[in-house]
Specification:
The complex is a heterodimer of chains A (111) and B (113). With 111 residues, chain A is mainly beta. Chain A has no helices and eleven strands. Chain A has strands at 5-7, 10-14, 19-24, 31-37, 43-50, 55-58, 61-66, 71-76, 85-92, 100-101, 105-110. In chain A, the strands form two sheets. In chain A, strands 2, 4, 5, 9, 10 and 11 form a six-stranded mixed β-sheet that branches. Chain A has a five-stranded antiparallel β-sheet with strand order 1-3-8-7-6, with no helix packed on it. The relative contact order of chain A is 0.35. With 113 residues, chain B is mainly beta. Helices cover 0% and strands 51% of the residues of chain B. Chain B is built from no helices and eleven strands. Chain B has strands spanning 4-7, 10-13, 19-25, 31-37, 43-50, 53-57, 64-67, 75-78, 87-94, 103-104, 108-112. In chain B, strands 2, 4, 5, 6, 9, 10 and 11 form a seven-stranded mixed β-sheet that branches. Chain B is globular. The N and C termini of chain B lie far apart (34 Å). Classes of the chains: A mainly beta (111), B mainly beta (113). At the A-B interface, strand 4, strand 5, strand 9 and strand 10 of A face strand 5 and strand 10 of B.
Amino acid sequence: SQQGEEDPQALSIQEGENATMNCSYKTSINNLQWYRQNSGRGLVHLILIRSNEREKHSGRLRVTLDTSKKSSSLLITASRAADTASYFCATDAGGNTPLVFGKGTRLSVIA
Amino acid sequence: DTAVSQTPKYLVTQMGNDKSIKCEQNLGHDTMYWYKQDSKKFLKIMFSYNNKELIINETVPNRFSPKSPDKAHLNLHINSLELGDSAVYFCASSPSGQGSGYTFGSGTRLTVV
């Protein structure tokens, strides 16, 4: 069954603003990953955070993980029109289990 | 060089036909996957192969048969196509071991008419 649930489903902001997307999941994980999907394209891996980590940064991206609440957030700072895409969280439960993806958040950044 | 390449990019076919989608990765990864993305953008795992061996086979009709001739290739063959098979199919790969991101292909949009 589906593991991750992103919130909100859609988000529209002005260029330069920050965008925050949230993800909740149901079972124990080894790590949680965020991916971006531009329209008509494949998914691109953005960042991975392990279950023993609480926060991770990569450029304008900041990811937090709260395993007690089974939730994660992705913050994109100083958004650009090029950040317009769908963003997915995916959970890795370890072993041979493949990533399980949420439904995604569709982000629109208006110039 | 494309890391994970799928062909064809678009596939339009009639109900009842048999079709194949090919996937190749040049990253030296041990594990390859097929995901199906429906019209609501939900991604669902179909199959997972590690070093040519089937690891995961989710609840997928047996009309879908993956084939991995070597660890760099994972092809998907679909028999007796149905309208509900219309979706975007993504191939992906990852290195062995825990905690690795996946590299996805650009997808194959299958339309069954």
